[in-house]
Amino acid sequence: MSNALAFDLGASSGRAILGRLQDGKIVTEELHRFPNDPVQVGERLQWDLLRLYHEIKQGLLKAKHAGVEPASIGIDSWAVDYGLLARDGSLLGNPNHYRDRASEGMMEKLGEELGEAEIFARTGIQFLPFNTIYQLAAQSRAGSPLLESASHLLMIPDLLRYFLTGERYHEFSNATTTQLYNPVSAQWDGALLGHIGVSETLFSPVLKPGAIAGVVQPSVREELGIGPIPVYAIAEHDTASAVVAVPALERSFAYLSCGTWSLLGTEIDRPVMTDEARKLNFTNEGGFGDTYRLLKNIMGLWILQESRRAWEREGKQFTFPELVQLAGEAPAFAAFVDPDDPSFMAPGDMPARIRQYCERTGQEAPQSPGAIVRCILESLAMKYRYVLELTERLSCQRFGGLHMVGGGIHNTLLCQWTADAIGKPVWAGPSEGSAIGNLAVQWIARGDFKDIWEARSVIRESFPVTTYEPGASQAWEAAYEQFSHVTGLDR
Ligand code: LFR
């Protein structure tokens, strides 16, 4: 019986999942779950990184108290954010949150200075205003004293792994999301770093997912009373881990990793660095086993989560199932938004922003929570169709359906509407995609699975997959035209 421990950190919560291989199947157990609340301090929105490290140690203690010594550990998290270390290895300040406004306008500025085509040719990465390159350029141009005194930069999972092992490495899948890593030369891009005035010496070697990245260091062993557990660099970008866990049996497949973000795309062997890919703002993020993730970020359930928080501030409490039920009862196709409108990026009053979007585009604004949630979920389903069709075009493939993984699959209405919108089946599961992909890479690295395809077929056997067949196709087809028109995506 071979076990492994996965720490999976999302933008609002984290968990420690123990995985066991039992009779040819994966059995998982959640040992620890904890909130990850970003903190607004003055102008800045930041991550409470030391608290996250504390929770990782709590997870290790819970394993120990359950009488389990994990055979290995892996950590995955959201991408693009980083921390800076001083010469003596101590953390300089708290890492900024990617939804912080510090780098506002920097993407446009660097685009003008360097040319978007040049940046894309060097990285193959989509233009998102919070990419590491823009965060770092903003810090560098503001003359940040932290950056000036920094000796090392590590991404979030690299940092936590460093605290555990004392060793500094980057990991490939997450490194690509910086928009500073050149997949062709397989190195940090010196020209881009030079332009933003950031020294290459801040960066450490990049490990491929599946590499051993150290063992739990003596001070931590002593503190927790545990052994020298090996720590692997898994596919540390949570989306990369989620893609590992897609229970596809064939090589050509499309996925939607559905959580706070919706990431929709396909797995490919070589980045698609064409002008068309750049103009459509697709990305080629690194994956397991020298693959790339040709995908697009879609704002996702963030808009719903933030709406719920806004209602909560007004004293109206709803659970997610309640909101989904109200959406089901509201009239269909009454109003649409483009979920990726920049006005939905920062935390704030989403219901008001949705109403403003609708007024701006000549639609009747939804008022009740049910109508607003219906508008969000239908708009997401429509955007999934749009991005799925573009993925087919860019990757020259036709998909028979869409694999959906992640916590969003608990929203059965969204799964059904996605199937309706794309006119193809949706195969939903597993919901803990990132944690399962994290475990799977540890098992591949340790030789328990021969390769990713064996891992995927065992995942398929171990976790239920629910099929949603498309229905009401004519109504959805007509509504898609309405959606494309009001969002301007038909232009
Ligand atoms: C999903 C995710 C996305 C990334 C966003 C910000 O959790 O990792 O892939 O674009 O968060 O880091």
UniProtKB/TrEMBL annotation:
Keywords: ATP-binding, Disulfide bond, Kinase, Nucleotide-binding, Rhamnose metabolism, Transferase. It comes from the Bacteria. Transmembrane segments: none annotated. InterPro entries: ATPase_NBD, FGGY_C, FGGY_N, Rhamnulokinase. Residues 5-244 form the Carbohydrate kinase FGGY N-terminal domain. GO terms for molecular function: transferase activity. PANTHER family: L-RHAMNULOKINASE (PTHR10196:SF93), SUGAR KINASE (PTHR10196). This is Rhamnulokinase family protein.
